[in-house]
Amino acid sequence: MPLPDGVLARPLADADVDAVVELVNACELADAGRVMMERADLLSDIGTDGFDRDRDAVVVSEDDRLVAWGLIVHRRGRWADVHPDARGRGIGTWLVRWSEDRGRELGTDRIGQTIEDARTDVAAMFGAAGYTPRRTSWILRMDHPSQPEPPTPPVDVELRGVQAGEEDETLAMFEAAFMDFEDRLPSSLATWRSMTFQREGFVPEDLVVAVHEGEIVGGAFLIDSGEIWVEKLAVRRDQRQRGIARALMQTAFVRSFERGYTHTSLSTDSNTGALTLYERVGMRVVESFTHHAIDL
Fold it and tell me: In three state form, how does the secondary structure of 185-217 look?
């Protein structure tokens, strides 16, 4: 279907990055009362291995103003937003069709988008277009108005910042741990580097690793964004159920408190089975989301 008269679509350019972040956060403020994206988030996504800037991202403008955008994330995912004052004109539907066409070009088996459960209007639109719910995800928060407990890893495990020369070992540990999750596509080391070491503003202390007998067996990637956000957390399969994940979370809580923040947050979904772990360390669900997808 065509876009409305006077509305134009083109590939995402470097000069669009800040405007896209502003657009996304304007949508999030209107829909959920908070912002979700930083410049570093978008740069990480478009820097992943195999990402085609000319075909995997699009911006939509009217009268030289950005009113919508779309992004294909890791082949199966879509992130698309339409500015509140440009909705109801078919732009969102156009973005849905654009992403489906691009998914078919990529040869992926499905395409979908995760939305807040409060957005029942969007869920209804997806349902009418043949999308079905596939998984649930949650944002959890740990409140710590006073000093959190210090990390208590097993006696034979050291927690520290990643060191030079450990990049590939650490990323391989994350990838192997995440491949335990159901129905996940593999990621290359280049993609992992884009999301971690090459992320704008990265410093080694952002990636906390758990070391056992000289091997990296766990890790947590922490982002300082007006709070500490636990972006990635994993423990090698043979080292689970030892308290390493709990100790990594405690590290995040302490760092957050020491930087003057009163809470720490993260996101998880039903494919990981980690919700109970985070609730056991004192976190609580503050938002829920559903991933809606269509088979191609």
Answer: CCCCHHHHHHHCCCCCCCCHHHEEEEEECCEEE
